[in-house]
Amino acid sequence: MAVTELVAPEATPVAPVSPRSTRLLKPGWPLSVLFLGFPVWWAMGLSQVIFLLVAVLSYSRRLFVRAFLSERQDDWREGIAGAFTHFGGVPRTLLGDNARALVVGRDRGTGTVLFHPTYLAFCRDWDVQPRACAPYRARTKGKTEAGVKFVKRNGLAEHAFDSFAALDAHLAAWMVTADAREHGTTHEAPRLRFDRAERAMLRPLPARALPRREQHLRRRVAHDAFVDVDTVRYSVPYRLIRDYVDVAIDIALGYSMVVVLMEDAKREIDDAQTQLRVTHDQLRRAALYDTMTDSLNRQAFAEGVGLEMVRATFGTVVLADLDNLKTVNDRFGHAAGDRMLRRCADVIRATLRPYDKLYRWGGDEFLLIVPSARSSDVMKRLHEALAAAEPITLESDMPLADLRLQVSLGASDYSSSEELHFAIERADRAMYQDKTRRKTDPRGYARVLDTPVSLPIVQS
What are 141-144's contacts with CB under 8 Å, separation 24+? Predict the structure, then answer.
């Protein structure tokens, strides 16, 4: 859903903000930063959990968002530095979460936070004061968490991406749109509020590049079993002579640690891990997918596979039943019935979005989970698609009138993940009512939209 669809065209008057809630709203500080995992969908229909770094300027509420594949220390530092560059200046205070990449511990008696040495060095380089949110005190990071929810619901929901680069480009364009919206608390566009009062309070970016606190280099081992790193030579096992090695350099509090990763051992470990992941993925897919229709199975539903969007929004469930599958199996054989199952799954799948899910619920039943949609719209698309389905040609001497396959449909809306199972029960009852109505209808099809809900079969 686009940002503009969730923002009212005119602001509703609200009561003035209390002085207590405005104490932190000083232009230029703090910049609140939070990391959060979030599932995204790729264009090929696969989902993956990425990590979003969301930075919010507390006064103007301008947002900065960057996606990462992990939540390591260097990801935090890269994201925070990217936020400084995006805003065109450096704030005075940096308010972060109590993530293990930033905070080593906390003295419960004094309340003193012990930050990670590498993170402290990063803050000294940028001349910002690090702070950590107090545990169980939502008010200290509420603005950031609200920003994270806004990004999830408006920047990523109902989107699928061809690649990680496409995701980055989408977020960059979306941030411009988000800065131009009217904020629900300030009743002012974040970009206008930033330009008016906050830009001048940020300190200039460094004139020259800051030292890198962590580096990953690739070096070739010399004939004397040494590698060179910034004019310093480090010894490695002699068997690696003329081979390439990876070098990891971590600098903290003025001390440097150089780790030479042995290429042979690293390659063997990487290959073994890759093969293990491939085997695991193959076994998991075999356990969670129906091989005939290439749809998820009931076990996948029981494990919550594909239900990520259900937890965040409303939606619709639909149960579809092939009424006369047994008749087709008896007259034409199970191969013909299997073709009808695959064709029905393909027709239904063509009506779905990347994050909608199709499950084979039973022998001749399918379950559809359609988040952020109403049953009337979903049923309309299904009826139209099933009525327009291409016929399947079968070699048989049976008369054509005996070969019509009917599909019964039942749908129900849900408003939360807790209501999903009740919605499935309601959809199941509606589907059987549709089946009963069709059996008693002399025309042999549902009356919805005045079109047959069926998959026709013709003989060759």
Answer: 141/32, 141/34, 141/95, 141/97, 143/32, 143/56, 143/58, 143/61, 144/32, 144/33, 144/34, 144/54, 144/55, 144/56, 144/95
User: Rounded to whole angstroms, how far apart are CA atoms 422 and 327?
Assistant: 31
In a domain, 278, yes or no: no
Residue 424 and residue 401 in one domain = yes
Mean pLDDT over 422-431 rounds to: 93
189 Cβ contact partners less than 8 Å away, ≥ 6 residues apart = 179, 180, 181, 182, 183
What tokens does 221 get? 């081992």
Q: Give the pLDDT score at 323.
A: 82
Q: Give tens-digit pLDDT for 292-313.
A: 998 999 998 888 888 877 777 8
Residue positions counted in the chain: 460
145-149, 151-155, 394-398, range with the lowest pLDDT: 394-398
Sign of CA dihedral 119, 125, 126, 131: positive
Is the residue at 271 inside a domain? Answer: no
Pair 100, 230 in one domain: no
pLDDT digits (tens, 9 = 90+) for 132-150: 887 655 555 555 566 677 8
Which structure tokens are listed for 406?
């009917």
221 lies in which domain range?
Answer: 214-261
Q: Where residue 3 falls among pLDDT bands split at 50, 70, 90?
A: very low
Q: How many CB atoms lie within 10 A of CB 57?
A: 28
Overall number of domains in the chain: 3
